[in-house]
Write a structure and sequence with these properties.
The structure is a single chain. The chain is α/β, with parallel strands linked by helices. 45% of the residues lie in helices and 12% in strands. The protein has four domains: 118 residues, Rossmann fold; 163 residues, 3-Layer(aba) Sandwich (Rossmann fold); 77 residues, Helicase, Ruva Protein, domain 3 (Orthogonal Bundle), CATH 1.10.8; 52 residues, Arc Repressor Mutant, subunit A (Orthogonal Bundle), CATH 1.10.10. Strands 2-1-3-4-5 form a five-stranded parallel sheet, sandwiched between helices. The chain has a five-stranded parallel sheet with strand order 7-8-11-6-12. It has a two-stranded antiparallel sheet with strand order 9-10. It starts with a strand and ends in a 16-residue tail after the last helix.
């Protein structure tokens, strides 16, 4: 049996081989990665007891890799090797939580002593525990500062009972984040029940959520426990809550206020103890203004808001996600596909991704399925991107884009004079300023009125 599992990270292949031989001879199981990005892709599906990484590498260096690892799993020790070591660097690395800092050329005996000490600390917790600080975010692959900030806030709010509204475009991973919040909460041992409010017909949604009694309607041949009761003690995730019919919004608000559900056809309410997480890709402020969403319900579900970035705004994650999905798909379909050609990866990284992470997964699934060799070529990726269906914006998104264009046009006409622009738009100044803020428009940028001002 191996003494422990070590992941070696270095862009020097010769040093990787040398280190691997020494550690394997000492009884350790060794995996290797030739870049920080590749290491994070490997960590997305496995956990070693120790990471040993070079400090100076192309792309993501050793300290950036350490920070990304620490954000996922604070208990996983990291040893950094460098030929450019200095006392200030070592002090700073140790202050930030690096387990060890060794200067090349290093003494093999000293390295093995450090490895033995680190592996004892980094051994994975017993099955059933959280996996230190990383188990709660299982399946979320990222090195993006924007995503890490979302996850930091999610981790904090998970400890409370506050309702959370997750905003983000379709395909950004809203349910994945909701599941992570549930796993990090005190309700983790209880059920997590996800409901897509836009996918269930309006006539059935109330029965699905709150249950029904036998004979309540045609086809109700037996009592049915609703999803709120099924999730008792746990978490209910209301996906696409912006699509919920108004009549049902009233009933949901009553449930949230009273903590009781009344099954369809019943005269008695049943107590329920659930935490509510919601998600939408819609602009709920606009939906409220249009009378399609209740403002009082909005404040109930929106104690804390988490905004997921578009994939195009976290491009550093595209290679990590692509390799992570490639590994998943190749394993599922039994395909011997190992990686992407550099040109293929560059093409993926530069693509627009209107369908976000979901679209990236679909593209990776297609190219892995069609690949005839171990490396996915650029041509397959180019073909998959060309064939990927174009994303059609939602009505709310299209309207927001129209509003932005209209307001910019009015500001150009009035050379940034808000009073005149508000009169043209038929709005008072206060409301007009709110519209400008929502659309990210600054009147000062239109003062010149020379046609070059931009939103």
């Amino acid at each position: 049996m191996a003494r422990g599992r070590v992941l070696l990270v270095d862009d020097d292949r010769d040093l990787l081989r040398l280190l691997a031989l020494r550690l394997e001879a000492a009884g350790y199981e060794v995996a290797t990665a030739e870049s920080g990005e590749a290491a994070l892709g490997w960590l997305a599906s496995d956990r070693p007891d120790l990471i040993i990484t070079d400090l100076r590498m192309e792309g993501m260096d050793g300290m950036r890799l350490f920070e990304a690892v620490r954000a996922r799993d604070a208990t996983l020790p990291v040893i950094i090797l460098t030929a450019h070591g200095s006392i200030p660097e070592a002090v700073e690395a140790t202050r930030r939580g690096v387990f060890g800092f060794l200067t090349k050329p290093f003494d093999s005996a000293e390295l093995l002593r450090e490895v033995e000490r680190a592996v004892g600390l980094g051994a994975a917790p017993a099955e059933g525990k959280d996996g230190g600080d990383g188990g709660w975010r299982e399946g979320i692959v990222t090195a993006s500062p924007a995503m890490e900030e979302v996850l930091r806030r999610a981790r904090l709010v998970a400890r409370s009972e506050a309702s959370v509204l997750i905003r983000g475009e379709s395909g950004t991973g809203k349910e994945l984040l909701a599941r992570a919040i549930h796993r990090a909460s005190s309700r983790a041992a209880r059920p997590f029940v996800a409901v897509n409010c836009g996918a269930i017909p309006e006539t059935l949604l109330e029965s699905e959520l709150f249950g029904h009694r036998k004979g309540a309607f045609t086809g109700a041949t037996h009592d049915h426990e609703g999803l709120f009761q099924a999730a008792n003690g746990g978490t209910v995730f209301l996906d696409e809550i912006g699509d919920m019919p108004l009549a049902l919004q009233v009933k949901l608000l009553r449930v949230l206020q009273e903590r009781r559900v009344r099954p369809v056809g019943s005269v008695e309410a049943v107590p329920v103890d659930v935490r509510i997480l919601s998600a939408t890709h819609r602009d709920l402020d606009a939906e409220i203004a249009a009378g399609r969403f209740r403002e009082d319900l909005y404040y109930r579900i929106n104690v804390v808001t988490l905004e997921l970035p578009r994939l195009a705004d976290r491009r550093e994650d595209i290679p990590l996600l692509a390799r992570h999905f490639l590994c998943q798909v190749a394993t599922r379909y039994g395909r011997h596909v190992r990686d992407f050609a550099p040109e293929a990866l560059a093409l993926l990284t530069a693509a627009s991704w209107p369908g976000n992470v979901r679209q990236l997964y679909n593209v990776v699934e297609q190219v892995v399925t069609l690949s005839t060799g171990p490396i996915v070529p650029e041509s397959l990726v180019r073909e998959a991107l060309r064939e990927a269906p174009r994303s059609i914006p939602s009505f709310a998104e299209a309207r927001r884009e129209f509003e932005r264009g209209y307001l910019a046009q009015v500001l150009r006409m009035t050379r940034g004079n808000v009073s005149q622009a508000a009169r043209i738009a038929g709005r008072n100044r206060t409301e007009f300023y709110k519209l400008l803020r929502r659309c990210g428009l600054d009147p000062a940028r239109f003062k010149q009125g020379d046609g070059r001002a931009r939103a």
